[in-house]
Every structure is written in C-alpha cells, then in structure tokens.
Amino acid sequence: MSPVGAEHFLIVSALLFVIGVCGVMISRNLIITFMSVELMLNAANLSIITFSRVHADMSGHVIVFLTLTVAAAEAAVGLALIITLYRKRGTIDAAKFNIMKW
Amino acid sequence: MENTLDIIVFWVSAAFAIGGAVMMVWQRNPVASALFLILSLISQAALFVQLDAVFVAALVIIIYAGAIIALFLFVIMLLNLRGESFGGRSEGPGRFVKLGIASLVGAELVYIISMSIIPKLELGLQKAAPMNFGDVKLVAGLLYSKYLYPFELTSILLLVAIVGAVVMAKRDENEKPDADLVE
To answer: Minimum mean pLDDT among A81-95, B17-31, B51-65, B168-182: which range?
Structure first.
C-alpha cells in the first residue's frame, strides 16, 4: 500500500473543517451549529499537530492545549447563551432569531 | 508511515472521523448528533496518536468527548425540545447557495494544500519522530517555561467564562417568562 504522508492528514483536516462549515451554514438548530464550530476547532488542531510532527517541534502541542481551553470556555458561554435564548423565546431555531436581519 | 498496519489504522480512523462528522451535520436529532460527534472526535484522537501526540490525544478524549459533549447533552436534556422547536435544516433555494459557499471553501483548502504545501513537506512523516516526542513531560516542560504567560492567561479566560456563563444562565428574579412557555 502507498505510504501515508503529512498531506493525507492535512486533507482529512480540511475535509473536517469543510463539513463543519456546511453544518454552520445549513443547520438551523443552534446546538448542532455549535457542535459544528467545535468540529472546526478540532480540525484546526489536527493541522497544527501534523505540522508539529513534520517539523519535530513540540510547540504545536502547547498551542493545541491552549485551543482546547478556549473551546471549553466557548462551549460553557455559548450553551449559557442558548439556554437564555430558549428561556426568552421558547425555541432554538436560528431562523426565528431575525431581529437584527436587514 | 510505511508499516501496513499503520496505513490501515490511518484510513479506518480517517473514514470514521469524516463519516461521524457528516452524520453529525445530517442528523436532525441533537442527541444523535452529539453521539456522532463523539465518534468523530475519538477517531480524530486516533489520528493524533498516529502523529505521536499521545498526550494531546488523551486531552481531546477527556475534554471534548468527556466534558464538552457531556455539557451539550446536559443542555439538550434540560431544554427538552420537541417538534417545531428543534429547528431542522434550512430549506429553499438559499440552501444551495450556502452549500456552494461551503464547497468553495473546501476547494480552496484542498487547492492550497496540494499546490503550495505538499512540495515543501516532501513526505515529512517518513523520518521517525525524535525520542519521547509528544511525551507529557516535554509538553509540561514547554508549558511551564517558554509558554508560561499564555498558560497563566488561560486561567483568566476560564474565570471569565465561568462568571459569564453564571451571569447569563442565571434566572432573573423579576423577569416574567413568556406566556406560551408556562405549562
């Protein structure tokens, strides 16, 4: 079988990122939109780890550690926002939140 | 990676990572979506292990698949959504424009990777990783020396997130809920 190189990992990472973009674009459920954002963050992590391995430099692992912290903080704040929105409006359908739509 | 077993593991975990992600976006039920996201994240952790990032793989499973998805499931159960309030997917002609934009982003990424990055990498994974690469000890060494200030800043970030989440999710005493929410 043909050997697996760094570009395979980068392509997988790009595909995961694009699937995340699709999720953000087409999903109207705010929770699924939010999970897609988490998926995009982790796809970026995969790229960082790949480059870290190629250059044999461990700084990338530290950067991924910091990204994970940001993702955790973002999940906590975002889910609090979703709970507040649901309490005010009784739905989490993104199409219903059009008060700022031009 | 030239070992046959390594190559098989790569393709299987890549297939599960991408398949899980597609199913996550495709599902209408958020609970099923969250479970497919766990599948995708665990497969991505397997990819991290293949890149000699063992500590990061463990972190991804513990923090993402453990903590964050548990929080998501908790919120889904708390909201107790039924029927209309789920949201579903966007419909009408606008959907194709959105998918077109997304595939444009994908085409750009693949183009950039194949045109500019691959010739410079020259299959960098053929060389064996340095000794103890990805070890907890080495990550901790960098974290507490070179990257000490960013690491300390994350504690402030987490504090702000905790305060923000509590302030936003706290029920206001004087607030009257909308009439259609009272059962």
So the answer is: B168-182
Q: Is residue A102 part of a domain?
A: no
Residue by residue, DSSP assigns B137-174 as: HHHHHHHTTTTHHHHHHHHHHHHHHHHHHHHHHSPPSS
CB–CB of B33/B73 below 8 Å? no
Helix B4-26 vs helix B30-50: crossing angle, to nearest 10: 160
Cβ of B124 under 8 Å from any chain A Cβ? yes
Mean pLDDT of B127-147: 83
Contact A38/B68 with Cβ under 8 angstroms?
yes
Q: What is the pLDDT of residues B47-76, one digit of tens each?
A: 999 988 899 999 999 998 888 999 999 888
CB–CB of A86 and B79 under 8 A? yes
In a domain, A17, yes or no: yes
For A46-92, write each residue's pLDDT tens digit: 999 998 888 888 889 999 999 999 999 999 999 998 888 888 887 78
**Total count of domains within chain A:** 1
Considering only CB atoms, B110 lies closest to which of A11, A89, A94, namely: A11
pTM of the model: 0.86
CA distance B61 to B4: 26
What is the domain extent for residue A41? 6-96
Nearest CA in chain A to B127: A54
**In angstroms, what separates the C-alpha of A81 from chain B's closest C-alpha?**
7
Structure-derived torsion over alpha carbons of residues B162, A48, A38, B98, reported in degrees to the nearest 10: 140
